[in-house]
Amino acid sequence: MYLEKLLSGYKLVRFFFAFSFFFSFVIYGKVLEKNDYNIPEIILFIYLITSFTLLFFRQILFLEFFLDIVFLTAFIIFFLKLTSYLSILYLYPIFFYGVLTGSRKVYILSTISFFIMLFLKAFIENIEFSTLFLIAFLNGFSFFVIAFAGIKLYERLKKQEIFQKQIEKLEKEQEIYKKLYQISANIAHEIKNPLASISASAQLLKEGNFNEKLVNIIYEESKRIDALIKDFLNLSKSFSKTNEKINIYEEINKVIKSCILTENIDVKVFTKDSKIYINMNKQAFNSLIRNIIKNAIEWAKSQVIVSVEKIGNYIYINVEDDGEGVEDEIKEEIFEPFFSKNPQGTGLGLSIARNIALNYQGDIIVSKSEILGGAKFTVILPLEEKNESTNS
Question: Which of 123, 191, 226, 300 has the most CB atoms around its CB within 10 Å?
Answer without folding.
Answer: 300
